[in-house]
Design brief:
Helix content: 25-40%
Strand content: 5-15%
Number of domains: 2
Number of helices: 6
Distance between the termini: 18 Å
């Protein structure tokens, strides 16, 4: 059974929490994670690439010249794919890339990514996250206390903050912090956890997350 320290917003250890051993067992199922990531990324694709066939290109309704007697090759339309300004053969058309995977695999993938963060010591439990104002500096101060500030060369969000709920002040305070993304624990998914280096979760959000697997 994993036991983790609980930190307050000043970065001090105030308590410990025993993680549910049925969920946090340290096992990472890479196959389930692979399927979940593939499904998520495919479902983000819009599939709007399109080309026009010879029937969709404007013009070309009249036969350029008669079928026989000219000595030239027979042509039915000036919009033939062989001609300049003609249609496209076998070009892309709008399509739907969406596909689903079973709920059990999605749950197993999320469980695996959580365990991966746990194995890497990148799983941080926070007593609570509250900001009284909507100022960004107040939100950053919490992560400075937790020593989770990124290097200046970091170009992407490295911390995912999971909460049980996000009020207006918290949303406004976090929206301009480049190295942090936030979400509600019951809505998180394997891809979101996997792409961030550090996972910070409040005690109440951890309870919500545990309920999802039950």
């Amino acid at each position: 059974m994993f036991t983790l320290p609980i930190y307050n917003q000043e970065g001090k250890e105030v308590d410990t929490v025993k993680l549910n051993e049925k969920i946090f067992d340290g096992v990472v199922n890479k196959e389930a994670v692979y399927q979940a990531v593939n499904s998520y990324r495919a479902n983000q694709r819009k599939g709007l690439a399109a080309t026009k066939t010879r029937g969709e290109v404007s013009g070309g309704g009249k036969k350029p010249w008669k079928q026989k007697g000219t000595g030239r090759a027979r042509v039915g339309s000036i919009r033939s794919p062989l001609w300049r300004h003609g249609g496209v053969v076998f070009g892309p058309h709008p399509r739907d890339f969406y596909f689903t995977i079973p709920q059990k695999i999605r749950s197993l993938a999320l469980k695996s990514t959580l365990n991966e963060k746990l194995n890497e010591n990148n799983f941080v439990v926070l007593d609570d996250f509250k900001v009284t104002t909507n100022k960004t500096k107040d939100a950053i101060k919490v992560f400075e206390n937790l020593k989770l500030m990124p290097k200046k060369t970091a170009k992407s969000a490295g911390v995912i903050l999971l909460l049980d709920k996000i009020d207006k002040n918290e949303k406004l305070a976090l929206r301009n912090v480049e190295f942090i993304n936030s979400n509600i624990a019951r809505d998180t998914h394997a891809y979101e956890v996997l792409k961030h280096k550090k996972l910070v979760i409040t005690k109440s959000a951890l309870a919500e997350l545990t309920k999802r697997f039950k």
